Amino acid sequence: MTPSSLIAHYKLTGKLGEGGMGEVWRATDTRLNRDVAIKVLPPAFAEDAARMARFEREAQVLASLNHPNIAAIYGVEQGAIVMELVDGEDLAGPLPVDTVIDYARQMAAGLDAAHEKGIVHRDLKPANIKLTSDGVVKLLDFGLAKAREESAATAMGAGSMISPTLSPTMTQAMTQAGLILGTAAYMSPEQARGKPVDKRSDIWAYGVILYELLTGRHLYGGGETVTDTLAAVVLKEPDFSALPADTPQRLRRLIERCLKKDAKLRLRDIGEARLMLDEPEIAAPAAAAIAVTKAAPSRLWMPIAGVLALGLAGLAVVHFRQSPPPREMVRFSVQPPEGGSFPSLGNMALSPDGRKLVFSAVVKGMVALWVRPLDSIEARPLAGTENANFPFWSPDSRFVGFTADGRLKKVDTLGGPPQTLCVVGPNAPTTGSWASDGWIYFPNGREGIFRVPQAGGDAVRLTQVGAAETFHVFPQVLPDGRGLLFWLAAGNTEQAAVWFMSTDGKAKKRIAPSVRTFSYVPPLDGGSLGHLLLTRQDTLMAQPVNATSFDLAGDPFPVAEHVGNLRSYAFFTSSANGVLAYRVGVGAGTRQIAWFDRTGKPVGNLGAPGDYVALALARDGSRAAIVQNESVASKLDLWLYDIARDVPSRFTFNDAEQNDPVWSPDGSMLAFSSRRDGLYTLYLKNANGAAQEERLQKAEDGERPCDWSPDGRFLLYTTRTKGGVGGALWTVENPADPAKRKKAPYLDDGHAVSQGQFSPGPAGGPRWVAYTSDESKHGYEIFVQSFPLGAGKFQVSRGGGTQARWRHDGKELFYSSPDGKIMGVDVKLTPMFSAGVPHVVVDTRGSVPNAQITFRYDVSPDGQRFLVNTDQIGAGGTPQPITVVLNWLAGVRK
């Protein structure tokens, strides 16, 4: 449309604006010689004959609204609606109280006239109210929200970055209860929950507008996204203290009645607003009356006081016997920062007050922590948290603790650099817990749970990992401070469980079996039952427990499905006041071993979707060894796949956990790790499966194989250093010959080193080893050193890297970036090692899970294809949002 265009006998003269229901133009009625407003409906709406027929029938009803405070509708012409042109200003505050009362009367009169005809506005907001030059309030766009309901399929989603105070009506599928309809900042709570709309929703919006006219500030919204505002509408109580001090009591009471979150308690009819606005103010008692009261005989006052006391007691009994309105569940999504993604490990934590969410995100190749207030417009990064993992909150919801670069740290979310609290082991950290008495509890791998003062200092051991145990992790301090819960992992995963322990470490009690992260939620309704949130495969379950004794108190019930997990980590977090957040993603049945070419294009799958961990290709590319879980108890086993035929066969059968497959150069044997005595140690087995596996040596501190040298002479593996700070690379010489086996350290420099990979080399043996190390102040990077040491050391990756793999001709080195891309570096091995600039090879964001120990991808011998353990749900680079659930227990109670 352009100026001078004709719609029937209306000539367009100028564009006034546009919204969700099309463009709005000023036009001249050439027959009656008057100016009108014409809303040109979108083609998807106007070209749908059935939809237009319904709309025209609705317009006939709307045209019957003949009232001075409602902009008239003149008709429908050629896919456009012709309306009264209202030249005037939008309503905006703050305004004087008398002016607000005048406008309130006029708005109420217009709404009353519409409601009497059974017409609900559905989208009342300042943008739909005009003030003429002579002070008349006009309500616009009456009933058009109902037409938008017909356009739900083309409505904008809740994550659109359009101000919810100005946006057109939006719809978003939320739950089976229905669709959300209405502009977010002026939605009633029942609209936000997807419930049916009636005139009480108009009354809510009317109250919001009066509040904003008096205060000059938004009750909710103010530039936020729709999902943020929905959370505020449901979660936040109106701040009536912001009303001006000179607000008359009758106007204050009216606004409070309109803004009752329970529609049953809200003002029932807008006509009542007109009556309340006309009520006289109640004057304070006169001084003479007070004097008479004081002078009254006490024998007269005492019976009156007795009657009043009885009356008040009766009212109190009635009032306090009334049950508060039930809370209802609301869901919305939190997207990753613009241009970023969530890493494969679902690091996130809700603040204790349930109002903020901290999570890790990858932006421009760097992992860092971001904080998202649930009632704010967007997340913001926390400075100095690069490569941070496992965030947790202080009790006052101000500070965030985390681990990074082998250190436990904290950062003030209001600003300032992070502070280091103590040193932790390389593979030890999981999320910590901050007690109200100032102690921070954290796990230190196989050494147990420690605690450190919140100001930093020496860590004190609280638990000792037993001989048959593997880890004590995921500590969670109880709200009353009398103890903490933690997860005890054992070599036999069926023994893994949640335990209670007193804060002095003396009293311990097994609570419930669990194979992954857990979270304890204290009683939400003042009762005696709390809940343990646990995952069973990819379903989040709630197990009722006695909040005093921690005895199980009933059967577990499902809370959410398809909750992501990576081995012992489940992607969910909860607060003590009923807020839950989780990510859909990896987990049992949700991963796929897939082939990618060098452009990142998927070119086939290997096997069916499942719960996969590590993988390794035989050097001729004909077979793959893959670690996968086939049980609820998350017991890992090795399977061999014939790649040409896509046929799997189980390779290990022990009850313990098996991991980290490494092929011998000729493909005749496999080295792997097995956790049979509570610690990983090295095993060998013929690849044909004909003989039993053989343990190479006694486990001392956990041993994970990395690679086998091209000449077959050395098996390289990762182990912990004896000081517990970092990791080391060791070798077993002649691993296949029991008589000649000999272990020796290769690289033990005090840093966390792992994932060593021998370079392809001549018959004389390997010359270089690529490995992962945290020695860079920016986190894990890929380095290359000579083998044996002494001929040079080089950093290869930039901006983070793990899981180095060599191309078989030695001309290229690959690694995984923090955001899950496969990077490539052109290299030369002779006469001295040299490396080019890293470049993206597989440009499928998030395709490779980040890992510091296991390998989640491998490379075909020619370097042209990549076998990747990929997240099936998030495949294609589409980041999965975080789902936030308010009042989660209300949604699952029967």
List the helices and strands and how they pair.
Layout: E1 6-7, E2 10-19, E3 22-29, E4 34-40, H1 43-46, H2 49-63, E5 73-77, E6 80-84, E7 88-90, H3 97-116, E8 129-132, E9 137-139, H4 144-149, E10 170-175, E11 178-182, H5 189-192, H6 199-215, H7 226-235, H8 249-258, H9 270-277, H10 287-295, H11 298-321, E12 330-334, E13 340-341, E14 348-350, E15 356-363, E16 366-373, E17 380-381, E18 389-393, E19 399-404, E20 407-412, E21 419-423, E22 433-434, E23 439-443, E24 449-453, E25 460-461, E26 469-477, E27 483-490, E28 497-502, E29 508-513, E30 519-521, E31 529-536, E32 539-546, E33 557-560, E34 565-566, E35 569-570, E36 572-574, E37 579-583, E38 591-597, E39 602-617, E40 623-629, E41 636-642, E42 647-650, E43 657-663, E44 669-675, E45 680-686, E46 694-695, E47 703-708, E48 714-720, E49 727-733, E50 742-747, E51 753-758, E52 768-776, E53 779-786, E54 793-795, E55 802-806, E56 812-816, E57 822-828, E58 834-835, E59 839-842, E60 857-859, E61 865-871, E62 882-886
Antiparallel strand pairs: 1-2, 2-3, 3-4, 4-6, 5-6, 7-8, 8-9, 10-11, 12-62, 13-15, 14-15, 15-16, 16-17, 18-19, 19-20, 20-21, 22-23, 23-24, 24-25, 26-27, 27-28, 28-29, 30-31, 31-32, 32-33, 34-35, 36-37, 37-62, 38-39, 38-61, 39-40, 40-41, 41-42, 43-44, 44-45, 45-46, 47-48, 48-49, 49-50, 51-52, ...
Helix pairs in contact: 3-6, 3-9, 6-8
